[in-house]
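Consider this:
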Amino acid sequence: MTIEIKSPVFNPGGEIPAKYTCDGDDVSPPLEWSGVPVQAKSLALVSDDPDAPGGDWVHWLAYDIPVSAKGFPAGVGASSDGPAGAKHGKNSWGKPGYGGPCPPSGTHRYVFKLYALDAPTGLEPGATKEQLRKAMEGHILGRGELIGRYKRGR
């Protein structure tokens, strides 16, 4: 099942405003979603950069998001205290919460993936992407994806 995920501050495939990057306030962008399957018991968000020189770079992990949440306002990914009871995992900087786009060169894609799960993950705050992937295995009921782009120095 496909979940619609969007942001009021950038269009799908469009440029992420500098405010939400290392060149700005480095706060998470607002996100909105709909179409979560009624059987879902929790949601998980993974945001990463597949164009990073060293491979996939994790910018944000949030999980055990209540299905009653219809999105996140701007700035929620700055700490391990998640909105509405969500937990934050470690990004590739080794910190909990959101770390904004900061590509070393060129334009990079930033992929926000939302997963509907048939159960909470059971993970504590601070999990890695690999731990989250394993916890979600066999529990995904639906998925949505939003891609933004960013290039420094514009």
The first helix runs from residue 129 to 136.
